[in-house]
C-alpha cells in the first residue's frame, strides 16, 4: 500500500508544479481499519478506536480524525 500512496502523492505534486498559475491547498488524513477498529495514522497519541459517523451532507466521516493541511503557491515560492 505504501507504493500506491507514494505514486499518488507524486502525481499530485507533479500536477501542481505543471500548473503554476493556480494555488493549491492539500488536505491529507490517514486511517487504518483493522478488526473493525478505526485508528488515526497521523495522531499516534490517540490510542482509542475512532467512530465512523454517517453525516447526510458529507457521507461517512471519521470522528476526530486529524487532517493535515498545506497551502502551495508556486508563483510566490511559498511551499
UniProtKB/TrEMBL annotation:
One Pfam family cited in the UniProt record for this chain: Kinesin
Keywords from the named record: Motor protein
Listed InterPro entries: Kinesin-like_fam, Kinesin_motor_dom, Kinesin_motor_dom_sf, P-loop_NTPase
GO BP terms, alphabetized: microtubule-based movement
Gene3D superfamilies hit by this protein: Kinesin motor domain (3.40.850.10)
The Kinesin motor domain, residue ranges: 1-79
PROSITE patterns linked to this entry: KINESIN_MOTOR_2
Protein's UniProt keywords contain Transmembrane helix: no
Record-level Gene Ontology MF annotations: ATP binding; microtubule binding; microtubule motor activity
Similarity annotation: Belongs to the TRAFAC class myosin-kinesin ATPase superfamily. Kinesin family.
Designated name of the protein: Kinesin motor domain-containing protein
Organism whose genome encodes this protein: Microthlaspi erraticum
